[in-house]
Amino acid sequence: MEFVSDFRIIPSDGERPGAFASFPYDRDLVRRFREAFPRARWREEERGWFVPGTTAVKRLDTWIAQELANLDRHADAKGRDAYLFDPLESPYLTVGEDLRIRTPYSHTIVETLRSIPWAHWDRDERIWHVPFRSYEELRLKWPVIEEAARRNEPAERCRRREEQARLGPRPASPAQLERRRRRYPVPGDDLPPVETPLMTLSWGIVVFEEIEDQVIEEKVDAGIYPHAREEPGHYVWAHWRVPTLQEIYRTRPAREAEERALGRSRGWWRPDRDELQERARQLRQIERAQRMRHAAQKDPVGPGR
Question: Which phi and psi angles does 151 have, rounded to 5°?
Fold first, then answer.
């Protein structure tokens, strides 16, 4: 796989001038991109970053040229030599123009591969690609990947389910029980807005649907709700739901640091850009997991196997 082909720039054909940029996921690369284009926003439908402006294509071309100039041109050759000298042998790894990884779905695997520079997911082939320049990083993290893959093989998952059924269900923790109630204590004199994604100390970003009129009379668990330090009568229950991905995309990030500092004392605040992006990433992972489970039900052997 040629490095240059991993970068794509597509001029916007919508009413707003700009261009879409896509490139392999790498945390440092994304950081440098965000620093160069602070107005860029991720667009899930286009699977790319939208950079506004009539000169977006020219500015992106310049930035990519600088990134390519800083790249070690011999990195892939060195990585291939390292692989030949100390190869990984695994049923989950094949070698071609790059290193290709196909495993059962695992959140651990996804997070581990996302941390490897230049590793990216091919949705058409349903396979992970890792260039040889990242071989040393992959080799260091391979034991975690392979162990997670074996644990998520259909036969192994079935064995664990049967064992769990034999032993009986595990008792839920107090936090798990409380989360299932979908409630959150908020100050009665500082109520949050409803139907708006908000950040909370206990459950991350949620959407409050309804707020009770009656004050709380029972004792509030400070271990679960660390902001509820006053008497229970100071708070009321707000009932919440998980936000949709589109709600997260439409939410304007907060900019005032003072507002977030105040929010942490009352238990809720308007999320900033990083908090919104993290929640969107989590929701996309949930959607992908649901799609892969659905596909696995149709194909018991597992995706891509």
Answer: -65, -25
